[in-house]
Amino acid sequence: MASGNSFYITTPIFYVNDAPHIGHAYTEVAADVVARWHRQAGDDTWSLTGTDEHGEKILRTATANGTTPKKWADKLVTEAWKPLLETINIANDDFIRTTDERHESSVQLFLQRLYDDGYIYSGEYEALYCVGCEEFKPQSEIVNGTGPFEGQKVCAIHSKPLELLKEKNYFFRMSDFTERLLALYEERPDFVQPESARNEVIQFVRQGLSDLSISRSSFDWGVKVPWDDSHVVYVWFDALLNYITAVGYGQDESNFDRRWPATHIVGKDILRFHAVIWPAMLMAAGLEVPKQVFGHGWLLVGGEKMSKSKLTGIAPTEITDTFGSDAFRYYFLRAIAFGQDGSFSWEDLSARYQAELANGFGNLASRVIAMVTKYFDGVVPAPAEYTDVDLAIQAVVQKAAEDADRSINALAIHDALASIWTIVDELNGYITDSEPWALAKDPANAARLGTVLYTALDGLRALAVLLSPVLPQATDKLWEALGAAATLGALVDQPLREAGRFEQLPEGSTVSALQALFPRIEPAVA
RNA sequence: GGCAGGGUAGCUCAGUUGGUGAGAGCGCACGACUCAUAAUCGUGAGGUCGCGGGUUCGAAUCCCGCUCCUGCUACCA
Description:
Layout lengths: L5 E5 L3 E2 L6 H19 L3 E9 L3 H9 L4 H19 L6 E4 L3 H16 L3 E11 L4 E2 L5 E3 L8 E3 L7 E10 L5 H10 L4 E2 L1 H12 L5 E2 L1 E2 L7 E2 L2 E6 L1 H6 L1 H4 L7 H7 L3 E5 L3 H14 L7 E5 L2 E3 L2 E2 L10 H8 L1 H11 L6 E3 L1 H31 L11 H22 L3 H22 L1 H4 L6 H22 L4 H10 L2 H5 L38
Parallel strand pairs: 1-3, 1-15, 2-3, 3-4, 10-16, 15-16, 17-19
Antiparallel strand pairs: 5-6, 5-9, 7-8, 9-11, 12-14, 13-14, 17-18
Helix pairs in contact: 2-3, 5-6, 11-12, 13-17, 14-15, 14-17, 15-17, 17-18
The structure holds one RNA strand.
């Protein structure tokens, strides 16, 4: 099946301590749709997701819960993160955990290589430390003191003075890569996208990079530094490496060569790690940099960035329990321009579900299949002479399929959906204008009636194929109802880039009853 | 503070290099139709294009000032 080009796509790995919310799910769904699209188009596709399980925070919560960090992570992976993938119907090819042996050993290999090549040195990390937090504070949590602490730097959480402490750390010579990174952004404008994200990254790197502290010795929950086991690897350095350790770096070179480099889908909050630190790490190791790093936007709820602390965090199941996973997948990818921030509201979700999925696509399938059943006993009629209006529909389908593929390649997922939806809209208009119910009243119009319904049916066939990456459940039902599974084979085996070609649904196939693809949802429930 | 992006119909957003009366979807009103999930199709109402100046024959689109919002300004995943 995999004939074409290698396509490797990743999501960020989830920090297991978080609670899954629709922001995580959004990233997953976007990557999944793109992966499914490429897979069904015949590309040699691999999609990866997973969990990030090291670091001091996890050690602490595990201890607080009276267990070990590994057991704590196991529990969260099993009870929270893998279920999330089920909830939104993700078809990932692999799931890596940073506690996997394959990951840890390859991280050490990578680190040793950088050390041997002189990219890592021992230094002193000096920073402000909060006794209350028991940790070094990032700039964002350091504020100027007031009252008795006037003139001192204090912890934003405890409002108490910070101590300047030193700790022996290993440092990565990231500063060596400033120029090479800038050259990369310049030579490959697509490396960081969208444009706004690219600009921010460039602006940041132009200020100059300093070396990165990549080890910690104050706790031990992490990958051991191979030449000094009193240190563990800084979580980000560890986590980023999942993208190569999962596909065989250092262990299965042929697979690694087959998959790497990857397209990384990330939230814009972690863009810098992926667009600056990560390529610098790869350069140091003599490996190819990623194919692309795409930073998508925030989900805004009530005009604000969604967050747990503001109680705007929404669990994916809150949506899927009512609307289903297909609607979840469709809504976020259709309503939000991928790459920009987008507003979420229950009203908008509900309205789009009703207008686009139920009344638009679902009802279209319903009315066409009902008419074929009523007027042709469910047997797919043969088309006769095509008129201009029929040919116009064929052209719409062809164009939509081509446009959608182009958009997916550019990660403009919302544009792809808009293109595909022109088929839904045009088909609904075509049916109303052609009035098959009127044609059916006179046997003399049988040929014309057959042509109209065949055109509508083959349009549905194209829709099922084109929408299967986004709406896997609904399109499967439709595929069955069209009788296509029996004649054309499984939906996921239908070549996506051929979907726009007309007359694929064999005449003589038998359609069967179709339950509502997207049943109306009573407002009282929602 | 610096840098970047943005403020366009009730809502969410498009608006190429300035030029036919400013657009889409949803919502709303009216009409048509009845195959369909009380669905569909058509028509229409509705906008000081953040504010104030300026350039121009002509600006939402260029320039200046102001105002409001958002992001970035490194080691939090």
